[in-house]
Amino acid sequence: MTAARKIIALLIIIFFGIPILFGVIWFVGLTKATVSPEFLTDLPREIIENIPDMAEEIFMEAQSERVITDENTRAWFQAAAEAGVTPIRVMEETGLQDWLRNELSESLYETGEVLRGKRRPKTIILDLRPLKEILLRDDIDRYVMRILEHLPPCNEEGIQTWMEIAEEGWGDEGLPACRPDLDIAREVLKYKRIEAVSEMEEEIEIFEDVRFIPFGISRVITWLSYSLFLIPAFFIFIGALIAATSPASFFRWTGVSILVAAIPALLLSLFVRSVSLWALNFVPYSYSYSDTWSAALTDLVLEKTSWIPVMIVEHLFSPVVAVSGIVCITGLLIFVISFMVRDRIQIRVVERQIVAPAPKAAEKLVESEEKTDEKKTAQKEDTDKEPKELKPGSPEFEKTIEPEIESEESDKKEE
């Protein structure tokens, strides 16, 4: 019967308790990461603050032959530097930097306050119309024309390439680093810019029709995700209850079941985070090198912005590591409690074995004392029955002598 109970308990724990607990650990960790204000608002704001510096570093290093070996790509950045068209200058003069630091950053800040529960949720609108107006301004055309003026004149092959781009559109091929007919170049670049801007939305609504949630949306969602632990806890509890033969075995089954699910979850989260961080170092090298300026620029951009995916990976997998670690500690504590319960039961048994025989021993002691008293009483009675030695002159001696004297006198009279 005990073996059958253990088999049933193993089936419940292996097929229900452990897999569900493993999945809940990952779900709770990822949910906690993706709804946290640190991930949704603080990280984007930090990226926005660093955009001008990153763009400037990319611009400066793209002019170096050591960094960009492709002459076509390097020629475009060198022409922009000669024209005085730097990223920071363009962002400041067009108002793009103000939009990033004010409109976008403020919307992200309000979103973070709502997620933390410090502000009632309301419809937050991220207006992209100012950004689209900035990108369609004539100032952008003037910057582009100044860069083209500092490029060397095109040869026949360069002119043919520009004509094909003007007729067929701008595909994946890079623009040749030469100065074509400026009217043609202006139309080509303007058409590409209008096409990209038209695909952008005019506004993004956040927290539309969301009512007030106490303690913050992020906390409530995280707490609700934690409640999912009740599902695997139920199956593990049932399995341990079926297999347990004592309180100690119940805690032992429970603790081991939790550890069997939590340790693989912890190891897998650490492994995935480490592999992801390791793989990010090789992302720039995963692209095939070509003579187009886009491939070389992509490599440089990925190198300068590598800290962004690293922080994203850390924000995503660190909560999973933390949750699985907490579950591991919980299982270990329950497993340790099983030994404490067993020791306490053993102590109680020993105490009962020591305390329980005490009345019997007392009864035996009383009986032995009674027997001893009886022996003493019997010895005393035997002693009292023995004749005592009488001393002359004592009353007892005279009492014993008087009958003898009387008998002697009676004998004399008879004679």
Helix content: over 70%
State the distance separating the first and last CA atoms: 110 Å
As for the number of domains, it is: 2
Q: In DSSP terms, counting alpha (H) and pi (I) runs of 4 or more, how many helices?
A: 16
Note the run of SSEs as H and E: HHHHHEHHHHEHHHHHHH
Oligomerization: single chain
* Strand order, sheet with most strands: 1-2
**DSSP strand tally:** 2
Structural class estimated from helices and strands: mainly alpha
Strand content: under 5%
Note poorly predicted spans.
285-293
Topology:
Layout: H1 2-34, H2 37-61, H3 71-83, H4 87-94, H5 96-116, E1 124-127, H6 129-135, H7 138-149, H8 156-168, H9 182-198, E2 203-206, H10 217-226, H11 230-243, H12 247-280, H13 293-304, H14 307-355, H15 358-385, H16 395-414
Antiparallel strand pairs: 1-2
Helix pairs in contact: 1-10, 1-11, 1-12, 1-14, 2-5, 2-14, 3-7, 7-9, 8-9, 11-12, 12-14
Describe the structure.
With 415 residues, the chain is an all-alpha fold. The protein has two domains: 2-128 and 201-346, no CATH class; 358-414, no CATH class. 76% of the residues lie in helices and 2% in strands. The protein is built from 16 helices and two strands. The chain has helices at 2-34, 37-61, 71-83, 87-94, 96-116, 129-135, 138-149, 156-168, 182-198, 217-226, 230-243, 247-280, 293-304, 307-355, 358-385, 395-414; strands spanning 124-127, 203-206. A two-stranded antiparallel sheet has the order 1-2. Helix 12 runs antiparallel to helix 14 (307-355). The chain is elongated and about 140 Å long. The termini are far apart. The model is unreliable at 285-293 (pLDDT under 50).
